[in-house]
Each structure stands twice: as C-alpha cells, then as structure tokens.
Known about the structure:
Chain A is an all-beta fold and 112 residues long. Chain A contains no helices and eleven strands.
Amino acid sequence: EAGVAQSPRYKIIEKRQSVAFWCNPISGHATLYWYQQILGQGPKLLIQFQNNGVVDDSQLPKDRFSAERLKGVDSTLKIQPAKLEDSAVYLCASSLDGNEQFFGPGTRLTVL
Amino acid sequence: AQSVTQLGSHVSVSEGALVLLRCNYSSSVPPYLFWYVQYPNQGLQLLLKYTSAATLVKGINGFEAEFKKSETSFHLTKPSAHMSDAAEYFCAVSDQAGTALIFGKGTTLSVSS
C-alpha cells in the first residue's frame, strides 16, 4: 500500500514570495490533516479536512495561509506572502477511521 | 485544553541499556495517547497508541508504554536500546478518535556503543 505522498520535499524562497505544497493521501482515507513543525517543536495542526470539507482550521493563519482539498482526495496548502517565521516542515497526514494518522515525509520550507 | 509535556529534550543511553522517555498529559476527558518516532528527514511513524483498552500497550520495535491515570503519565520504555533506536520521539494526545493530535516538543534519543 502506498503511503502519503508530499511534494516538493524541499523549498527555499524569499520572504513575501508565494509557495504551494501538495499532498496525496493514502487511497480511501477520508480525513486529511496539515501540520506545521517548527524546528525543536512538535507538529501543530493547521487544518483538518473530512472528505472535501473543513473540520478544523482554527489555527490556520488565514491572512496568509490557505488550503483546499478538491474532490476529497489531493490537497494543496498555500502560503502567500511568506514570512521568515513560516520556515518549518509541513507535514500531511491521512486517516481512514480516525484511530491512526499516517504521515507523509514532509516538505521542508526555508524562507530567507 | 489538552496538553502534553515531555520531560527531557535529550536522552542518552548506551546500547543494551533501558530506554525511558517521559510523557505527561493534561486532558479533561479520557484521552487517546500516542507515541510517534521520527527519523531524520522522514515523517512520523506510529509506535503505539492507548485508546482506553489495556493500560500496558505494546508497540513496534520492542517499545511499550503504560497509561497511569493517577499520574497522568504515558511513559515509553524499551528494555534494551539498539543503535537503530536513535531518533526523535513524540508523545501526542487527542480527546477522541479522528480529532487532531496535540504533540509534545519531542525527545531526542541518542544511543552510544
């Protein structure tokens, strides 16, 4: 069974630029999560989708971050414009029944 | 609000020694508790989970954890460390199945020969 796929794996941008990350969850998994992991900290939820609907986006900085999950499968997370403090690893996870979340390898973002 | 505290950001052990990684949680409802491991440049892998069944939970790679409600703890142990156990370990809590996980800050485990 293929795992959660994410791309790109690494991205370096200048502050105020835009960036987008892509996630392909495990086939059949209805729930998809985006987490932000800043160096030295544990992951923190940004947004949770159930199929193509948003369940929780209370910690998403909506002035600069946006996310969508078209057709309830793939998801894209966008940052526009990026700030220095957005440097982090962005992890995508998916779950079939809510009992276990499967994580992708992450996208490491560096904002200069 | 839920929270997780991992005591010790860095733990060093010798190969063959006992591994003990500490986790305390705060939750207003019976929690779901998890331990994840993260190797460099990889995503998180589930080691084990507690979901209100047996209080002693066995996971992969010889790890186990014991849920102690009176101490609000869920410490991770392994009787004998291997070099391959060197990684970052995260304790996490959620208040019900399917909700987002609240993670601790992580503990880096180093294993020396």
